[in-house]
Write a structure and sequence with these properties.
3 domains, Rhopdopsin 7-helix transmembrane proteins, about 550 residues, Heat Shock Protein 90
Length: about 550
């Protein structure tokens, strides 16, 4: 008759009165923590050796834990002896894969061939001795506890485990010396893996020496601690390419805690309530993870666009640098050449050549103004524009610019009316050159270009410490849609290019920047398309 252990046969290989209540809880928490984290890392397994080794560590740990439950529940001594031997082998593989994982994680490279051979040699005695009675001498039928050869068991199992733990410490120290910037990352990782291994083994060592195997169950809680520290390391230092691990770990961790309550609930209603709570939490957790996933995807898209924009900005800077040093130089030389021809520096020239040179000079000067608008816009945007502030007469500046542009208005048979409130000087402290070129000239020139026929009225007045300068035309007007784009960088009206093919869209943007730099403001008014427009500039009478 076969001898049996002194308790009833196990149900489903895992349930019997010999199993302490803490065992299910400790094993469930440990396995779930390991398997869940491993499943999160699974998509990275193809391109990462550390991930593969971590998953192998989880596999052997889960195998050890799964074997441990029927080892407690079954009352068959021969099966227990076999499972015990298999469990010892799984324990050795846990340590070896953990060391291998630690090495690749810290040094971010594979072990060389000879160290791998060394690991195999370390494991060889265990494989050879397990089928014999040198490590395990039998089974105590009164307790169904395996009788061990303490000396050999310590040397060939716990001795190897201690040796591998010390190697992990040495590897960690060497990694910190090589890469001081990863000091915190390596320290957290090493702390987590050593807590896991030492807690894992301490229960077995205490059980072997005291034969109180209930204590060994507490050692399995080292795995959740390791997973927690590893999760923090992954999130903090981006150790693996995982985007949602923090959210997933939080959801799964809470779900495990809620689910675990079902195992030690003493009432049916308590178990049902725990189940309902778990179900509701899982549903909300799924929506939470999906929401965070969308947010992460959007954040990554924004980061990608920012990187692309940075490249484009750099290319734009290079282009502007080229325009500033090369194109502007070519245009300046061309302008000087055509001006010399037109002004007779090369002697008398035929009338046709004179006409051609004047037209070419006018076109080159337009090109120079266009290039300067683009360059000035870039400098204003970067905040590198310098202003030379000094007192000047704004009235004189307006009269000079208007007189200079009058021939262009005469060509289109457009009249220019100038209305100045009084004959006093309008003294202003500011950069006269920039106000003349970018504000006064821009507004009057635009009024001429965008007025097919009619008149333009230029007004200048003061009061309450403010100077008001405005340009009113009877031209194409401004639609509400186009009004939104005024004063923006490159902002064109919907049909402005049809009327002024040379428009860069930077003129009003630059005018606004210059006016605001003088402590003033600029705005436009229009009743709509075809009803003309009015641009108003307000400047402090004593801007600094």
């Amino acid at each position: 008759m076969e001898s049996l252990c002194p308790w009833e046969a196990a149900q489903y290989f895992v349930f019997s009165s010999n199993v302490p209540p803490l065992l299910y809880y400790s094993h469930l928490i440990a396995i779930l923590a390991a398997v869940v984290f491993g499943s999160i890392l699974l998509p990275q397994v193809r391109g990462s050796l550390p991930v593969k080794l971590f998953l192998s560590t989880i596999f052997f740990f889960s195998l050890w834990t799964i074997i441990d439950i029927p080892l407690w529940a079954l009352n068959l001594p021969d099966v227990d002896l076999f499972l015990w031997s298999l469990q010892v082998l799984a324990e050795m593989f846990v340590y070896m894969s953990a060391f291998y994982f630690a090495y690749t994680f810290i040094f971010q490279k594979d072990l060389q061939f000879l160290p791998k051979v060394g690991l195999v040699i370390l494991l060889a005695p265990i494989i050879v001795l397990l089928p014999t009675n040198y490590l395990f001498t039998g089974v105590d039928l009164s307790t169904c506890v395996i009788s061990e050869n303490s000396l050999l068991n310590f040397v060939f199992t716990y001795g190897i485990e201690i040796f591998l733990s010390l190697l992990i410490l040495i590897v960690s120290y060497e990694g910190i010396v090589r890469e001081p910037r990863r000091k915190m990352e390596i320290a957290l990782f090493t702390t987590g893996i050593l807590i896991f291994l030492l807690a894992f083994s301490s229960g077995n060592i205490i059980g072997s020496w005291t034969e109180n195997w209930n204590v060994a169950q507490a050692g399995l809680f080292g795995m959740p601690v390791f997973i927690a520290l590893l999760t923090y390391t992954v999130v903090k230092f981006k150790a693996f390419n995982i985007k949602l691990i923090a959210t997933q770990a939080l959801v799964i961790g809470i779900a495990v805690l809620i689910g675990a309550r079902m195992f030690y609930s003493t009432t049916t209603i308590g178990t049902i309530l725990s189940g309902v709570t778990l179900f509701a939490f899982l549903i909300s957790g799924i929506f939470l993870v999906r929401s965070v996933k969308r947010e992460v995807a959007q954040r990554e898209l924004i980061q990608k666009q920012e990187q692309e924009l940075e490249v484009v900005n750099k290319q734009q800077e290079n282009l502007l640098h080229f325009i500033s040093h090369e194109i502007k130089g070519y245009l300046t030389k061309s302008e000087a050449g055509f001006a010399a021809i037109s002004e007779g520096d090369y002697g008398a020239i035929p009338e046709k050549l004179q006409t051609m040179s004047k037209a070419a000079l006018a076109d080159v000067r337009k090109g120079v103004r266009t290039v300067m608008e683009i360059l000035d816009s870039s400098n204003l945007k970067k905040g590198t524009t310098a202003y030379t502030m000094q007192p000047f007469d704004l009235k004189k500046a307006i009269l000079d610019v208007t007189e200079h542009l009058k021939p262009a208005a005469d060509e289109k048979h457009i009249g220019i009316d100038i209305a100045i409130a009084n004959n006093e000087n309008y003294r202003l402290n500011g950069d006269e050159t920039k106000l003349r070129q970018h504000v006064i000239r821009n507004l009057v020139d635009n009024a001429i270009k965008y007025t097919p026929k009619g008149t333009i009225r230029v007004e200048l007045s003061d009061g309450n410490g403010k100077i008001h300068f405005s340009v009113k035309d009877s031209g194409v007007g401004i639609t509400p849609e186009d009004m939104k784009n005024l004063f923006t960088e490159g902002g064109h009206g919907k049909d402005s290019i049809k009327i002024n093919v040379h428009s860069t869209g930077y003129g009003l943007f630059i005018a606004k920047q210059v006016v605001e730099a003088h402590g003033g403001k600029i705005w436009a008014e229009s009743e709509g398309a075809g009803k003309g427009s009015r641009f108003i500039v307000e400047l402090p009478a004593s801007a600094s």
